[in-house]
Each structure stands twice: as structure tokens, then as C-alpha cells.
Amino acid sequence: MARVLVTGGCGFIGSHLCQALVSRGDRVRVLDDLSTGLEENLMPGAELIVADVGDPDALARAMEGMEVCFHLAAVASVERGVRDPRGTHRVNLSATVGVFDEARERGVTVVYASSAAVYGDLDVLPIVEDAPTRPLSAYGADKLGCEQHARVAGVAHGVRTAGFRFFNVFGPRQDPRSPYSGVISIFCERLSHGQPVTIFGDGGQTRDFVAVGDVVAALLAGERVASRGAPVFNVCTGRSTSVLELAGTIAEVCGVRADIRFEVARSGEIRRSLGSRARGRDVLGLAEPRALRAGLEDVIAWMRAGRPGLRVREEVGVSR
Ligand SMILES: NC(=O)c1ccc[n+]([C@@H]2O[C@H](COP(=O)([O-])OP(=O)(O)OC[C@H]3O[C@@H](n4cnc5c(N)ncnc54)[C@H](O)[C@@H]3O)[C@@H](O)[C@H]2O)c1
């Protein structure tokens, strides 16, 4: 039984990770300020500290007695970074430096969320981890900064880390009403209610959509390979899907005809994104990722079940 801290454990990905950790018998503590996460997402059996991960005292309390920290807390929104680069930098990078520093004091291993946003818009696909990193957003720059600080924490202070560059993650408990949620949760919500969806541009832009269960598997494997060398891994499927194809598949799963509206492409949007999963497969031993259609069926089933987690929040009126 390991003693594990999960920052951001009430969020979309964090709640799935906590579920896996609690079910394998770990003692799980969550540090979350509930800014986008939900108290109702907290796994029974996990302890919750409601605080800002950037608060050194709260972080010290949260890390006390822990062996591993999964650091997922972040403002997971490229748009927020455009509007408020200073505010998001404080959470996305400065707080991460604090996590590495506290981990150094206490000999804690850190497995943390980076992002495919560190790559920017690359021509050579699929993207391997050794590809150039040229972020195009404050969010991507901060995530790259986390990786650089992980390296320094390892080299200079012996902190063991592993970083994960998530591509487009989707699954149950992703909030489609949040302006930051992924295209899948928005399309599933609208198409399942027979509403039209809007595609910016011609729909030919492609993404690598990875199911949240595969992200959890990667993070758990990260514990084993964390080292002073600060390794980083893509978390992706190696399969490319256009946004137009995506809308069609979701409509099929929902049993409706897709009503698609097109609007002018958003400036600066990346045209093609596709990760290589070779390193994750060879080094972490990650299994074949879940098929997109099967993952979409999970999301639709969760929505049809009344979106457990999100619905509870509305009923009890937990404020964000
Ligand atoms: N969802 C994706 O497709 C994706 C892609 C790349 C990277 N990521 C990264 O994965 C991680 C989890 O993302 P998610 O999609 O689950 O987002 P999320 O918003 O659902 O989860 C983030 C959690 O962190 C908490 N949090 C935010 N600021 C905090 C603070 N200052 N102090 C304490 N807690 C705070 C939120 O309340 C929330 O529970 C993030 O680091 C994000 O950058 C996500």
C-alpha cells in the first residue's frame, strides 16, 4: 500500500487516477482548490485538502508522509493562458517548481502532467518525444518549463520524476459545459441531445484522441520509471482522427444524423497533431490504446446515466 498525493485529484483526469489508486489499495490524499474540479469527484476513501497547490504551507501539509506525488493540478486551458498569462503561470509553472522543491525535502517521487502543447505545430508526424519543442501558447511554454525544472530537480537535487505529454484526452467526467473542455465532450453533449455542432474551419484538422483510462495506465507506469534523468513520455494513440470524422462517429454512437455548422477557422489553430506511442509501448510496456469508438461509447453511456459527478454538483450547489 503506497501513500500517494494527487494534486488536482478532483478534476477530470485526477478523479480517474484516484479511482485506480484507491482500488489498488493505496492511501490517497488529494490537494485541490476545486477551481475546476468537483468535490463530488473525490473517490470514497481518499482524503481531501482544499487548498491552492501554490500555497507552500498547504503543499507541505499535503506532502507530509507521502511517497509519490501525482501532480495534475493546473489551469488546463490554453484560452485562459492567452487571457491571463501571469495568473496561469503562477499555477502551471511556479506551483510545479514548489512541488519539486517540497519533493526534494521529503524524498517524494513526482509523476506530473505535461502536454503535447510543448511541441507547437510540427511538420513531421507522428511526433516523437525527441522532436523539437516550440510551444505556441503560454500554457505550452509553462508545461515545457515544468519539464525543464524536473530535469534540474533531478540533476541538482536527486528528485525522481517522470513527465507525461498528454495529447487530447477524453472520457467520462469531462465537463462539456466548461469553456475549456475538449471537443469530444462538447460534441457528445450536443449530438446526444439532437443539437447542431459547430466546426471551425473545414473539419479536416486532425487530432490524436486518447481515452482517460489509457492516461491513468501511463501515469501508474510512470511511478516505476521515474528517475533523476526526468524522462518524458507521450500519452497518445498514434491514430489520427479528423474533427469531421469525429462528429460522424459520435453521431453514429448516439444514433442521430450529425447536423454540422461550419464557421471561419480559428487563427493559430494547429492543423495536424499526432503522437508516436513507441516510447510508451517499449519503455512503459503500455498496452494497445482503447479504440476511439469504444471510448466514445463510454462517454455517451456516462451522459445517459445522468453524468454522475457533474449532476450531483448542481444538486448540492457546490460553488467553484
Ligand atoms: N484534458 C486534456 O486533454 C489535457 C491535455 C494535456 C494536459 N493536460 C493536463 O492534465 C492535468 C489534468 O487536466 P484535466 O483535464 O483533468 O483538467 P481539470 O481542470 O479537470 O483538472 C485540474 C484540477 O486541478 C485543480 N486545480 C486547478 N488549479 C489549482 C490550484 N491552484 N491549486 C489546487 N488545485 C488546482 C482543479 O480544481 C481541477 O480539479 C492538467 O495538468 C492539464 O494541464 C490535460
Please describe what this structure looks like.
By secondary structure, this protein is of the alpha/beta class. It has one domain: NAD(P)-binding Rossmann-like Domain (Rossmann fold, 3-Layer(aba) Sandwich). Helix content is 41%, strand content 17%. Strands 3-2-1-4-5-6-11 form a 7-stranded parallel β-sheet, with helices on both faces. It has a two-stranded parallel sheet with strand order 7-10. Strands 8-13 form a two-stranded parallel sheet. Helix 2 crosses helix 4 and helix 6 packs parallel to helix 8 (243-254). Nicotinamide-adenine-dinucleotide (NAD) binds at residues 8, 10-14, 31-37, 52-54, 72-76, 91, 113, 115, 166, 168-169, 182. Nicotinamide-adenine-dinucleotide (NAD) binds next to helix 1, strand 2, strand 5 and strand 7.
Please describe the topology of this protein.
Layout: E1 3-7, H1 12-23, E2 27-32, E3 47-50, H2 56-63, E4 68-71, H3 78-83, H4 85-106, E5 109-115, H5 138-157, E6 161-166, E7 168-170, H6 183-192, E8 197-200, E9 206-207, E10 209-211, H7 212-225, E11 232-235, E12 241-242, H8 243-254, E13 260-263, H9 278-284, H10 292-304, H11 310-316
Parallel strand pairs: 1-2, 1-4, 2-3, 4-5, 5-6, 6-11, 7-10, 8-13
Antiparallel strand pairs: 9-12
Helix pairs in contact: 1-7, 2-4, 4-5, 6-8, 6-10, 8-10
The structure holds nicotinamide-adenine-dinucleotide.
